[in-house]
Protein: TIGR03503 family protein
Amino acid sequence: MVNPGVSAAQVAGSAASQTETTENVPQNAGSDQKQKSTPDSAKRPIARLGDNYQNSITLLQNRFRVDHNVEEVTMVFFRDYGSAPIVLVRPDGSKIYQSRAEKENVKWYDDAAFDMITIKNPVPGPWQAVGQIKPDSRIMVISDISLHAEPLPSTIFSGEILKQTAYLANGDEPINQPEFRDVVKLEIELVSTNNPNFDNFGADNAVIATFEDNGRGMDERPLDGTFTGQFNLSVPAGEWKPVFRVITPMYTREQVDPNLMLYPNPVELDVVMAEGDENYHTLMIDVNREQVDIQSILVDGKIRYPNGDLQNFSLTEPSPAVRTQRILALDEGQFRAKLTVYGKTTQGRDFILDVPPFTFQAAPPEVVPPAEEVTAQTAEEAPERNTEVVSTDTEVPSPSAHEEDMSTGTLVILLVAVNGTILLIVLIAVGIVIRRRKQTTATASGEDSGASWLSKLFKRKR
Structure:
């Protein structure tokens, strides 16, 4: 399906009726030549034009031919990073620029490294793309982009970490162009079936994996055409509908698979607390024996103590018994255990499980006093018990309460007496001052009246 050329193209319409023709173009590119059909001409509606010599000439590079019965074509041109968008030249010599794509009834998406262009009812004949197109690019006639992935296991668990590989196909043939990974985005989404019998009833949709071909994470080699998805199934257990999605700037394709059942995490954790003089708590690690082979499990985990200290541990010895891990019982407070479990299902499939955090609370130890202190304390408490019994039966008020009432009454009386005395002294002082002022005024008025009488008497004698 991959032709030597410059880009990728998707054709909408009947692929069976589309034909591919090749044409030897002389150095005079303007002359039209009669087409010669190839044996597989019923497969490809776009053909590359020109021989190796002509395609080494700048003006004749990147030429391709569109067949007459193509209703829609989507082309992807990979160019140098950061270069300007390409220019398309029609068979009649007219040009289509990215800036005028809407006026030409053309959809154009330009990225830093590629152009994706959709043309409806393209003009049949030889076309040319002008720009800094990568020389190792190819033209592909894409009838249907699809994601081919391995089927999901029949038994998977909530919290499981899965690795799955997939590849993109153009019809029935893989797409091997490394640059094509920048054009598409591949992801898998889980959609709840909203079955009220399961824990995921009403849960939101969750994208559980994005496929990458960059050599990172679980992907083995970059740009090898094999996309790797790492599933992190940190979603509630229940019935889900997987949706495989291929996203491009122009369109999105979805493939819905049959419902799958996500089982609860099969790892079961418990703790035996230290008692008395014991110095260790014991973490118990078991699994659902109907789903998991207990002999196969390996445990890698860490314990966080209440004071923040961390203890890493690993349990690697195969055994049919419950796995145990001792934890120092030195602190009181909350302990937190986080585990990753490796093992096999009863059907023999390997798995990796991210176990939800497990916490438990350690109470402070009870201090037991010596026997002598216990005896003395009992003797001291005996009279108090007797007093309580008497007060309950006779309803006699307690001495401490009576003394408290008496002291409060005395304090009130003293305050009233002191304040009354002060008030009395003030009133007496005010009365004395007022009386003296009255006496002074009366004496002064008497002297004035006597003097006036004597003066009148002397005047009469004269």
